[in-house]
Amino acid sequence: MMDKALAAEITRRASLLTLLGGGAMLLSSGPAWAGKQAEEPLIDSVRTALSSALRNAAPPVPEFATTDARLQYLRWLGAASDRLKKRKPDWDVRREFLQTVWYESKRAGLDVALVLGLIQVESGFRKYAISIAGARGYMQVMPFWTRVLGDGDASKLFHMQTNLRFGCIILRHYLERERGDMFLALGRYNGSRGKSPYPNAVFASRRQWDFS
Questions:
Q1: Are 202 and 121 in contact (CB under 8 A)?
Q2: Is 109 contained in some domain?
Q3: Is residue 14 part of a domain?
Q4: CATH classification at residue 183
Q5: Looking at the domain assignment, is residue 35 inside a domain?
Q6: Residue 107 CB-density burial (10 A; 0-12 exposed, 13-18 middle, 19+ buried)
């Protein structure tokens, strides 16, 4: 039988590792999923969109054509903020994050609730999550995506807007390759195309962020 002092030390060290992090298995609410994204040639429009993210320093400011559109956004922001409050207690941090997720999702033509569901599965909403395979940030983007642009500075993937734009554009790229089939696109994002666990996990998480 294990000595009580040894058991207590193991418990203490496990708790310390959880606090310090050290891979997405510790930093997120579940396993790291996106570490098997495949490096591949990109069309010019995708390359340009990714490059623009590296030049943006400040969170984007949404613009609205009508008052109704703005009110709809504000209602969504309030509902999403309430849901996210336990994970991001600071209002300013939470607002900037949700504002950027909304902006980048819309910019890429993606469902905002699905992107939030993907982030929940990938990183548990932790900005500095790192998987064993080296995927980084909220949407667990692999460092090779920065090499594709000739930059190679993987630390930029911890910048909020850069990470969210990369993640959204990569998912949109896969969605187009799969002719609009989100199940297959999510599988490609995860590196498990045709298998159900990852897409099903994202779809299940999406329901928590659907306020329609």
A1: yes
A2: yes
A3: no
A4: 1.10.530.10
A5: no
A6: middle
Token digits for 188? Answer: 């490609």
Measured distance CA(145)–CA(179) in Å, rounded: 22
Give the span between the Cα atoms of 127 and 139, in whole angstroms.
Answer: 9
Q: What's the total number of domains in the chain?
A: 1
Range of the domain at 148: 46-51+64-209
Kind and range of the H or E run holding 51: helix 44-55
pLDDT digits (tens, 9 = 90+) for 119-172: 999 999 999 999 888 899 999 999 888 877 666 788 889 999 999 999 999 999
Q: Give CA torsion, residues 82, 129, 167, 57, to 10 deg.
A: 80
CA separation for the pair 60, 38 (Å, rounded): 29
pTM (whole model) above 0.70: yes
Strand, coil or helix: 199:
helix
**In terms of C-beta density within 10 A (0-12 exposed, 13-18 middle, 19 or more buried), how is residue 102 classed?**
buried
